[in-house]
Design brief:
By secondary structure, this protein is of the alpha+beta class. The chain has three domains: 177 residues, Beta-Lactamase, CATH 3.30.450; 136 residues, Mu homology domain, subdomain B (Immunoglobulin-like); 106 residues, Sandwich (Immunoglobulin-like), CATH 2.60.40. Helices cover 16% and strands 37% of the residues. The protein contains nine helices and 23 strands. The longest helix has 19 residues. The protein is globular and about 70 Å long. The relative contact order is 0.12. InterPro entries: Adaptor_comp_med_subunit (IPR050431), AP2_Mu_C_sf (IPR036168), AP_mu_sigma_su (IPR022775), Clathrin_mu (IPR001392), Clathrin_mu_CS (IPR018240), Longin-like_dom_sf (IPR011012), MHD (IPR028565). Pfam families: Adap_comp_sub, Clat_adaptor_s.
């Protein structure tokens, strides 16, 4: 378990060393190259579990459509942390990358001799970590994505031009986020306290370290003051659903996030209570919800959570994500779609779509969009809807049926007519119907905030606000036609 305040999360979803990566997935590739393997950018790094990174490089991107034109592309920024790798090693990166792309899908890891290259691409840049150590590959990638996130906070757009224009700040940030190969502070709010956009200006007087460097709570500054103390809690659940053409549910999951906006003075301690099973199983209460894959922000006291299931924390100032979770249980489709698509050869296509809301009457789905695929060669559309409006989007080959307000327990119909050319085209793929929606004041899992206690030594009173939202994630229903 990582030390709180050093990483963004105490949980480690994956531990995979470079040697294990090569041993399991490196077979069948050319010498020194690895089979492509996806990594989750949300994985959190640990200074104790990740091997030391020797160098970090920004390399100008190759345009894959015309590789020859970019042979002269060069290293923009290079930071050597340990000095155990020759700076010329990075010159092998681009030639090996071009060779690898010619052979097929690129791998995020490859080697030259005893040197490992781990890289990600963002916009027109490659961010490359170079190491000789047998480190944790997944955590290295997480660190690279975190660097991109920090730079985005500073420069808005992270691309070759912004790196060139801000190379002084880039070097300062690289000095702070890592020390001798070990990750340090990667919280953009903390970094912005002592590396500002004009941070290279000298200050008169004896230098003082920022409060966060000497403070046990590195994610929150001391001396924060507000006239009005408030806490806003957003409990957002996204429903991922895949339904087959026969109507059976192939995939069903709920991804939840608890987001906070903290406007509190001083150094308050917050205690949050939820009605999930993990928190209340020892008390035997009813109406609990079992959560899976729970991840917390680094501010949460894990020892307290393990002892009595209390989410206790000193929050960062402003907005942040306190926790995330998943539910893999079967979820009843909130908006059910039935479709009949009849295609008459060399003539026309008739589409009938019935949408039914399968949640309680007191709830209402807002801004519902139902995208129904149509043949790419269809034209002359005609629509008839029982509510909302339908619009043909020829560039996407779909009919977009928009319903501003969809109450629970209701059914609506949409009919569409399209003409087809006399010459029958090639067989096309059958994309699914997709649905977008948002249901306020409702959670599909039933999770609720039971209480929020705010404790601060000055004893002020704060107002907590809670908002529940259920929205569509990857929500698809396949069709027969």
């Amino acid at each position: 378990m990582a030390t709180p305040g050093v990483t963004d999360s105490p949980f480690f979803s994956l531990s995979l060393s470079l040697s294990l990566w090569r041993e399991k997935w490196g077979k069948g590739r050319k010498k020194g190259m690895f089979r492509s393997r996806s990594t989750d950018s949300r994985l959190i790094l640990s200074p104790t579990q990740m091997g030391r990174l020797s160098q970090l490089h920004f390399v100008s991107s190759i345009h894959f459509a015309s590789l020859i034109c970019f042979i002269s592309c060069q290293v923009l920024i290079c930071k050597n942390y340990m000095g155990d790798i020759d700076m010329s090693e990075i010159d092998h990166f681009l030639p090996m990358l071009m060779q690898m792309e010619e052979d097929g899908p690129g791998s995020p890891i490859f080697t030259h001799g005893h040197v490992h290259f781990l890289w990600i691409r963002h916009s027109n840049l490659y961010l490359v970590a170079v190491t000789k150590k047998n480190g944790n590959a997944a955590l290295v990638f997480s660190f690279l994505y975190k660097i991109i996130q920090v730079f985005t906070e500073y420069f808005k757009e992270v691309e070759e031009e912004s790196i060139r224009d801000n190379f002084v700040i880039v070097y300062e940030l690289l000095d702070e986020v890592m020390d001798y190969g070990f990750p340090q502070t990667t919280d953009s709010k903390i970094l912005q306290e002592y590396i500002m956009q004009q941070g290279h200006k000298l200050e008169i007087g004896a230098p003082r370290p920022p409060a966060t460097l000497t403070n046990a709570v590195s994610w929150r500054s001391e001396g924060v003051k507000y006239r009005k103390n408030e806490v806003f809690i957003d409990l957002i659940e996204s429903v991922n659903l895949l339904v087959s053409a026969s109507g059976s549910v192939l995939k069903s999951e709920v991804v939840g996030n608890v987001k906070l906006k903290v406007i509190l003075s001083g150094m308050p301690e917050l205690r949050l209570g939820l009605n999930d099973k993990a928190l209340f199983e020892i008390s035997g209460r009813n109406k609990s919800v079992e959560l899976d894959d729970v991840k917390f922000h680094q501010c949460v006291r894990l020892s307290r959570f393990e002892n009595d299931r209390t989410i206790s924390f000193i929050p960062p100032d402003g907005e942040f994500e306190l926790m995330s979770y998943r539910l893999y249980t079967q979820v009843k489709p909130l908006i059910w779609i039935e479709s009949v698509i009849e295609k008459y050869s060399h003539s026309r296509v008739e589409i009938m779509v019935k949408a039914k809301s399968q949640f309680k009457h007191r709830s209402t789905a807002n801004n519902v969009e139902i995208c129904v695929p149509v043949p790419s060669d269809a034209d002359t559309p005609k629509f008839k809807t029982s509510t909302g409006s339908a619009k043909w989007l020829p560039e996407k080959s779909v009919v977009n049926w928009s319903i501003k307000s969809f109450p629970g327990g209701k059914e609506y119909l949409m009919r569409a007519h399209f003409d087809l050319p006399s010459v029958e085209g090639e067989m096309e793929a059958k994309p699914p119907i997709t649905v977008k929606f948002e249901i306020p004041y409702f959670t599909v899992s039933g999770i609720q905030v039971r209480y929020l206690k705010i404790i601060e030594k000055s004893g002020y009173h704060a107002l907590p606000w809670v908002r529940y939202i259920t929205q569509s994630g990857d929500y698809q229903l396949r069709t027969n036609q």
